[in-house]
UniProtKB/TrEMBL annotation, chain A:
Pfam families: Usp. It comes from Thalassospira tepidiphila. This is Nucleotide-binding universal stress UspA family protein. The lineage of its organism: Bacteria, Pseudomonadati, Pseudomonadota, Alphaproteobacteria, Rhodospirillales. InterPro entries: Rossmann-like_a/b/a_fold, Universal_stress_UspA, UspA. SUPFAM superfamilies: Adenine nucleotide alpha hydrolases-like. PANTHER family: STRESS RESPONSE PROTEIN NHAX, UNIVERSAL STRESS PROTEIN UP12. Residues 5-144 form the UspA domain.
Automatic annotation (TrEMBL), chain B:
It is found in: Cell inner membrane; Cell membrane. InterPro entries: Na/Ala_symport. It comes from Thalassospira tepidiphila MCCC 1A03514. This is Alanine glycine permease. The lineage of its organism: Bacteria, Pseudomonadati, Pseudomonadota, Alphaproteobacteria, Rhodospirillales. The chain crosses the membrane at residues 49-78, 196-216, 236-257, 269-289, 295-318, 352-376, 396-419, 439-461, 467-486.
């Protein structure tokens, strides 16, 4: 039993689902907890129209509750496996935030899914798994 | 952002010069009828608003004095807040005081950027050219001074905009002069006066939005497009209605259809255009660095001697003050509407951030334009307005007029979007909120785009320009009453910083 949780990046996609399943097995084997992180991409330096400024707080509330709902099935599934699980929804840059949370929580490893795309944009702009592999303070597992 | 009467006049002159006679003959009927119907009313209003007194032989519009005097009073009352708290303003924009928990809410940077996209535009490009072509290089000095003073006006109105905004249950926020005038003055025991000022402000704001924030922009954008596509021989010459229709459809798709992608694209391109503009200006200035000293010498000497300028020192001063006020809108109240949406517990923080607006708009961008024009030596070419700026930049980069035309169209578009919102907020303040009522305003707004682009409506433009400056009358009266409220906010905010209750998170 270790008190270092496994950190899982989750966004409700099939890839994230696979990551959760894989993380469930690892957590059971190692007897550790799981911390699910749902990152909503956000930059405080992006440009918004006046209309968007007005509605931002309302939208944010909606986005947060939608994210919580998306997290629920994954939380339920892990609870069923008797794995201690926590979660959080955050706004920001997914790569930076996941690395930071991994440090703050003292996570033993990070598990993320990958969408399986090898499109040009993913190659040029990078993807979350690539960013994590480059920058993560702890081991990273990418689930195909 | 508006370059006013001279600009309106030159727009009319340009129009008649560029449009083929046949097209004019076709349009003259409707044009004339509208002009004749509106001219008597608009002349009275414009005449009153721009009532000028002769100072040293030059007509000085009182409304410009009203704005500059207010800016000076706020500067003194808040102890030169624009200099003392400049560093703090930068720290706030960088997010040094933004709590990570608040990520996803409107940041100080976003509120500033959106408000800036509403003011940076024609005033920075064309207005400055008008100022230095009439007032000489010395006008630049007075323009910078007025810009620096205007920072205190912005600080005052934007702090109040956040403090007295309405926060609805569904999480939306509405703020601006109509709210701080009515709620703020009610607190001061003058609910009647507050209500009247708020209503007057809203009416003027609708007029300003439809006119200066719409028709004038559409008109100028079309002129610039015609100019770069071959002037009189342009395939677009005389087809203003077509240009207006396309523009109106795009505006309609964004504000009625709620298609965010177009607004998003514009809001991404506008800052890029601004960066290209400033970079090109800086390259020209740096590659002529030996002439910069001389240019500044001309600016300073011109400011205090008024050599070769009609009206001498006073003539240069009037031009500088006028363009600064017209460009950064400090004291007009429009920015307070955009700034009110920021997520902050401390209204005064948004005031600090807002004071950067006249600095960027007037002190940085306008000064750069003035320097480029002075260095290029195009000042004595007899050109004015956009054409002068265009020629000055073309002396270094021959392809620049094309970029400038694109910039003018995009700036015009983003200014229209911003003002459609300011107008809508005033409209709903007067008639109440509701889908139907909002659609009526938005349709009317789109219609005005077509009208603005296709006609040479001098009187209409004069009228709407005066409406924008009329906004400053109720707004500044209210600001005088509410200055102590802002001072109270400042005091309690710095007490919290000193006690450590508010501290840097980065």
């Amino acid at each position: 039993m270790t008190d270092q949780p496994i950190l899982v990046g989750y966004d409700g996609t099939d890839a994230a689902q696979r990551a959760v399943e894989f993380a469930g097995k690892r957590a059971t084997a190692e007897g550790c907890a799981i911390h699910l992180v749902y990152v909503l991409e956000w930059s405080p330096y992006s440009f918004l129209s006046t209309q968007e400024l007005e509605e931002r707080h309302q939208r944010r509330t909606e986005e947060l509750s939608r994210a919580e709902e998306t997290l629920k099935p994954a939380l339920d599934a892990l609870n069923k496996l008797k794995i201690p699980v926590t979660s959080e929804v955050r706004y920001g840059h997914s790569g930076e935030l996941i690395c930071k949370i991994a440090e703050d929580k003292g996570a033993c490893q990070i598990i993320v899914g990958r969408k399986g795309g090898s499109t040009l944009s993913a190659r040029l702009l990078g993807s979350l798994p690539l960013t994590l592999v480059q920058a993560s303070p702890v081991p990273v597992t990418v689930v195909p | 952002m508006f370059w006013k009467k001279t600009a309106a006049a030159s727009a009319v002159a340009m129009m008649s010069a560029t449009l083929p006679q046949i097209a004019l003959a076709q349009e003259v009927g409707l044009d004339e009828r509208i002009n004749q119907a509106i001219a008597p009313i608009s002349n009275v209003i414009a005449g009153t608003m721009f009532y000028s007194v002769p100072i040293a032989g030059t007509a000085f519009p009182l409304i410009v004095g009203w704005l500059v005097v207010a800016a000076t009073i706020f500067t003194l009352y808040f102890g030169f807040v624009q200099f003392r708290r400049f560093g703090h303003a930068i720290a706030l924009v960088k997010g040094d005081y933004s709590h990570p928990e608040d990520a996803g809410e409107v940041s100080h940077f976003q509120a500033l950027a959106t408000a800036l996209s509403g003011t940076v535009g024609l005033g920075n490009i064309a207005g400055v050219a008008v100022a230095v072509s009439i007032g000489g290089p010395g006008a630049t000095f007075w323009m910078i001074l007025a810009g620096l003073l205007g920072m205190a006006s912005k600080f005052t109105e934007c702090t109040l905009g956040v403090k007295y905004r309405n926060e609805y249950e569904d999480g939306r926020v509405s703020g601006g002069p109509m709210y701080y005038l009515s709620k703020g003055l009610a607190e001061k025991g003058k609910p009647g006066l507050g209500k009247v000022l708020a209503v007057v402000f809203s009416i003027c704001c609708i007029g300003g939005a439809v006119g200066g924030g719409n028709m004038f922009q559409a008109n100028q954008a079309f002129q610039q497009v015609v100019n770069v596509t071959g002037g009189e021989n342009s395939f677009l010459a005389g087809s203003g209605w077509l240009f207006g229709l396309v523009m109106a459809i795009i505006v309609g798709v964004v504000i009625i259809g709620g298609i965010k992608s177009i607004a998003k694209v514009t809001e991404k391109i506008v800052p890029i255009m601004a960066v290209i503009y400033v970079t090109a200006g800086m390259i020209i200035i740096l590659s002529n660095i030996t002439m910069v000293g001389d240019a500044f010498a001309q600016i300073f000497v011109g400011a205090f001697t008024g050599a070769g300028v009609a009206g001498g020192v006073i003539g240069a001063l009037i031009q500088g003050f006028k363009r600064a006020a017209f460009s950064n809108e400090a004291g007009i109240g429009s920015a307070a509407i955009a700034h009110a949406a920021v997520r902050t517990k401390e209204p005064v923080t948004e005031g600090y951030v807002a004071l950067l607006e006249p600095f960027i708009d007037t002190v940085v961008i306008c000064t750069m334009t003035a320097l480029v024009i002075t260095i290029s030596g195009e000042l004595n070419s007899g050109l004015t307005g956009v054409e002068l700026t265009s020629a000055a930049f073309a002396s270094a980069f021959t392809w620049f007029p094309l970029i400038l035309a694109l910039a003018v169209v995009l700036f015009a578009f983003s200014t229209m979007l911003s003002w459609s919102y300011y107008g809508l907020k005033s409209w709903t303040y007067l008639v109440g909120e509701g889908k139907g009522k909002e659609i009526i305003f938005k349709l009317f707004f789109c219609l005005c785009v077509i009208v603005g682009a296709s006609m040479s409506l001098g009187p209409v433009i004069d009228f709407s320009d005066s409406m924008i400056f009329a906004m400053a009358i109720p707004n500044i009266i209210g600001l005088y009453f509410l200055m102590p409220v802002v001072r109270g906010e400042v005091k309690q905010y710095w007490a919290k910083i000193e006690s450590g209750e508010i501290k840097k998170v980065k």
